[in-house]
Amino acid sequence: MRSLVCVLLLSVLYIAAFPLSARSEDVKTLTLYHDSDYSNHYESAYAMKMGVLTALAEINNNVQDYQLTLIEKDNRGNSNRSLLHMQQFLKDRNALVFIGGLHSTPYIKNRDFINKNKLLLLLPWAAGGSITRYPSDDNWVFRLSVDDTKAGYRMAQFATKTLNCKNPLLLLEDTPWGKSNNNTMLKAFGDIKPQVEWFNWNTKINNAKLMLHQIKNTPAECILFVGNAIEGAVFINAMASFAKNERLPIVSHWGITGGDFFANVEQAIKSNLSLHFIQSCFSFLKTPQTALTKNVVAQSLSLKPTPVAPTELISPAGFIHAYDLTKLLLQGISQITLTDNTEHNRAKIKHALENLTMPVNGLIKQYQRPFAMWSANNIDAHEALGFDDLCMANYQPDGKIHIIENPIGNVE
User: Which residues form the Leucine-binding protein domain (predicted)?
Assistant: First the structure.
C-alpha cells in the first residue's frame, strides 16, 4: 500500500512538472550584447541601453516567438576587454547582434577580427570613420551615428563661417579616433593649414593650462577639440581659468557629451565661455513634438522596472541613435525567418539591412533604404546618417543640449 502511494505521488509530481518544463522550452531567447564604457562614461552607455530597450518594448521584446534580451558588457574603454566580449558573443549560441558603445578605438583596432568572424556590429555612437569602411563587401559593421568623415566638415564649416575663425588649431586626443579626425579636418579646411596639438587620456588640469597657454601664444583664433567627457572637462575648466579676453572659442566633437561633462564644467559654461559641439539634428526638447516623439517618450516612461525620461538624459543622442538603429534592426528581422542557428540569423539580418524593403520612421528622420552592400564606389553604404543630419549644438544654463538648426541652403 505504501509503495502504491509513493508511485501515485511521483506520477502526480511528474504530470504537474511536465507542463512547466514544456512551457520553459517554448520560450526561446536571443541576446543583444551592448559593449560600452559603463564605468567611465556611464551616461552615454545608459542612454544607448534605454534607447534599445524602448524600441524593443514597442514589440513586447518578442519577435517570431523569440524573446529579445539586452546584456550589458562593460569595456571600460579598453580594446582588449571589448575583444573579450566579442569572443564571448561568438561562443554564445543565442547571440544575435553586437551593439557598440562610445569609444571608436576598440572597433578600429578589432575591425579585422569583427569582419573575418562575421560579427554583426551595430554602432549608435562610435564615430571613427574607418570602422564601417572595411574594404570588402563582406562588411559586418553598420552605423547610425555621427561619422568622422563628415563631422570634421561640419565643425570646420561652423568654425570658419559662423565663428569667422581664420586660424584654427586642432587639439586632438592621441588615439586612433583622434588621428581619424585629424585626417578629415585637414581635408575639411582645404587651403587653411591648422596647427595640430595632441594630448593623452588622463591629462590633468595643470598640463591642460600649460598647453592652452602655449596655444594662446600662437596665431590660433579658435580650437577644434576632439576628446571625451573626462579630458574635455579638464580643458574647458583650464580655458575658463584665463581672463575672458584671453579665451579662445572651442568647437568640439560630440565625445564630450558622452559622460557627466556638464556637471564638471557648469561654472565655466555660465561664465560665457564659447563652446559648441556637434550632434545629430534631433532633440526631444523641440516643440511641438511629433506623434512619434510623443509615443517614444510615453513608451520610455513605461519601461519596467526602470522608466526613463528622454528629456532628462545627460547624453540624449545615445538614446536617439540607439532607438532608431534598433528600429532598423527590427525591420531587417521582419524580412527574414529566425531559426535556432544564430550564425545563419546574423548572415540573413546583414543581407536584410542592406536591402530594407520598407521605410522606417525614426526620431531623426524617415529612413529609406539607409544601408546597401558596401563597395569601394559606395563607401557610405553602411552609414545611416549623412552630412545634412549633423548639426551644431550648445549647452543651456540648465545643462540641456540645444540643437542649432543648419542655415537654409547649407552645403558641405
Answer: 47-364
How far apart CA 272 and CA 13 sit, in angstroms, is 73
Report pLDDT digits (tens) over 344-363.
999 999 999 999 999 999 99
315 is written with which cell numbers? 547624453
Residues 304 and 257 grouped into a single domain = no
As a whole number of angstroms, the distance between CA 62 and CA 69 comes to 9
Query: What does the alpha-carbon distance between residue 352 and residue 211 come to, in Å, rounded to a whole number?
Result: 49
Beta strands in 37-120 (DSSP E): 62-63, 66-74, 95-99
Under 8 Å between Cβ of 194 and 224: yes
pLDDT in tens, 108-123: 999 999 999 999 999 9
pLDDT tens for residues 90-108? 999 999 999 999 999 999 9
Cell of 114: 569583427
Angle at 11 between CA 9 and CA 15, to 5 degrees: 120
Q: How many CB atoms lie within 10 A of CB 298?
A: 10
Asked if residues 153 and 389 have their Cβ atoms less than 8 Å apart, the reply is no
Which residue in 240, 235, 81 sits closest to 173, CA to CA?
A: 235
Q: Could you list the residue range(s) of the whole structural domain that residue 300 is in?
A: 28-146+287-386
pLDDT band at 26 (very low <50, low <70, confident <90, very high): low
At residue 407, the pLDDT reads 77
CB 71, CB 34: distance < 8 Å? yes
Nearest to 145 by CA among 315, 316, 386: 386
* Strands 250-252 and 360-361, sheet pairing: unpaired
| 409 domain-assigned | no
Residue 8, pLDDT > 60, answer no
Residue 172: phi and psi, rounded to 5, are: -125, 145
Residues in Cβ contact with 22 at an 8 Å cutoff, skipping those fewer than 6 apart: none
Instruction: Please name every residue paired with 71 in a beta bridge, in sequence order, or none if there are none.
Output: 33
Whether residue 225 sits in one domain with residue 141: no
Q: Are 195 and 232 in the same domain?
A: yes
Q: What is the CATH number of the domain that holds 381?
A: 3.40.50.2300
Cα separation, 184 vs 148, whole angstroms: 7
- Same domain, residue pair 47 and 138: yes
Q: Does residue 155 share a domain with residue 130?
A: no
